[in-house]
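Moderator note: this is an archived Q&A kept for reference. The question asked for a predicted structure of one protein chain; the sequence and the answer are reproduced below.
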Amino acid sequence: MVRALNVDIGSKSRDSMPSPTPTTASTVPPSETKNHVDSPSSAIPLSRYVLFFGLSILGCGFDLWSKAAVFAWLGMPGQNRYFWFLEPYVGFQTSLNEGALFGLGQGYTPVFAVFSVIAAIGILYWLFVAKAAHDWLLTTALGLITGGIFGNLYDRLGIWGEAAVRDFILFRYNDEYVWPNFNVADSLLVVGAGLMLWHSFFVSQNSATFTESDSEAN
């Protein structure tokens, strides 16, 4: 009888012990999973290098090709030659810019050339040393910006024959409302800056909210 009592007590003790919970992906805290995948100390994927340098090289190449083609077609500024897509609002007209984006800072071409080199070095450091390239949207934005930087830097250094940026895209409402001529490189800079603003206001805030909610849950 004593033996039967001991067996009964032992079986009840085993039944009352909680069974171990198997470890699955759902039991791992989201913050730990996210940090494991996107840790800044981890190696940057090869796809990020391809994305960044692909956008930079293609963007710069298309900018230089378009400027050479349009200037060969319409000639240098001063010939008063136009090509209209929607006359008289959208078209091509060649012009030279010795300043920055959209004609700002005229006469400071060497200064802007130096700033361009510094900006390019800063972008490379931020992406591949500080590991910002883990973020695909930032990589895309900075790839476009770098393509625009080198497209205009080529012109500012005078490699094409004159130390001035070649512009040819024309937008205007009438003779009183004419937007400064620009080029493909300027467009790349604007689109890249827009993506960075989007990332700053939406993606970064969402990431911060996600991290904060994880901390409160833990």
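Archived answer notes: The chain has one domain: 45-207.
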